[in-house]
């Protein structure tokens, strides 16, 4: 499939974890990129690192705009100045626990921000969108692997925003068939850019497994709590489908190419995972091997709301996007450790 060159892509939330890695790949493929991010969960230094990585020539094709999707004027300004060929929409809040405590924050940010984006895109005639959905829309799957046509379910306010936004996308596309929308359901994104210059840098105590392990490895946290050791799995700990963030980034390029080159694509969902399940204890062992560090852990009760085992069926993305994950957990842990050991305090220096 021919790559449409010199197209301009708006990346919302492009200063964040998945956004930065995707922007590097977009620039490497010859796209022009504008980022809009309010830096709520990221820092501008991450965008500076992207510029360093791609070099001075490709950097000229990258623009950063500090702005908030909830302010329609921020979007109006952007769209009135630049003609975008498509939007990759990452911006949103993503912490499950926080969403249970402060649901309004999630509805306000994720729903209002996205509705504003659709309205401004419609007004300026840009009707191509790749949306960050999540495996969270499968809830507690009754069967695995998860297939795209399973019934969907939300378990918490964060998950509900993803589910609503998927439904909203389907309704908008049905009402206005010239929209082309791809919903990407990510499984568990981990790892980092192989250079060690980009990676995940959560604010506060990490909620997710790999950033937590990473902070234990560099001595920022004393011990990992392993939530659940009595699941009906190979070693009693829960099983997930971890996917290298660079594979995920390439999945976005594949989706974008499909979007830009296919008429009548409609609104379609794809899983982005590896299709392999790995337990929490297997992940700990793989990280210890990659880092040469001992990860002290404590076996704890299950975390409320967690599923036993979740992994993706990858057939649809392979067949229709021509995309397949390349990396296994060894490479994910290697690159995550490379990032962690070079940046033990993330993008900041030690506080
Ligand atoms: P992230 O927090 O690192 O990146 C999101 C970015 O969006 C941040 O830079 C943040 O500052 C920005 N942002 C948030 N609200 C904004 C607003 N109103 N206006 C402008 N910018 C705003 O998160 P990530 O891990 O890169 O996730 C990206 C997307 O993928 C999110 O939508 C998330 O829900 C989804 N997702 C992530 C995971 C995961 O485990 N990382 C899994 C499934 C889905
Ligand atoms: N876990 C621990 N200790 C920790 C953190 C996590 O044992 O300190 C366990 C969890 O209990 C779970 C597994 O590690 O069994 C993975 O947990 P994560 O929090 O890393 O990931 P989840 O599968 O719970 O959820 C993540 C994102 C969701 C997203 C989902 C699917 O947080 O937003 O992946 O994409 F929806």
From TrEMBL:
It comes from Nelumbo nucifera. Pathway: Carbohydrate metabolism; galactose metabolism. Keywords: Carbohydrate metabolism, Galactose metabolism, Isomerase, NAD. SUPFAM superfamilies: NAD(P)-binding Rossmann-fold domains. Pfam families: GDP_Man_Dehyd. This is UDP-glucose 4-epimerase. PANTHER family: BIFUNCTIONAL UDP-GLUCOSE 4-EPIMERASE AND UDP-XYLOSE 4-EPIMERASE 1, UDP-GLUCOSE 4-EPIMERASE. Its EC number is 5.1.3.-. GO terms for molecular function: UDP-glucose 4-epimerase activity. The lineage of its organism: Eukaryota, Viridiplantae, Streptophyta, Embryophyta, Tracheophyta. One of its GO terms (cellular component) is cytosol. It is an enzyme of class 5 (isomerase). The keyword Repressor does not apply. Belongs to the NAD(P)-dependent epimerase/dehydratase family. NCBIfam families: galE (TIGR01179), PRK10675.1 (NF007956). Its cofactor is NAD(+). The keyword DNA-binding does not apply. Transmembrane segments: none annotated. Residues 10-335 form the NAD(P)-binding domain. Signal peptide: none annotated. CDD domains: UDP_G4E_1_SDR_e. InterPro entries: NAD(P)-bd_dom, NAD(P)-bd_dom_sf, UDP_G4E. It catalyses: UDP-alpha-D-glucose = UDP-alpha-D-galactose.
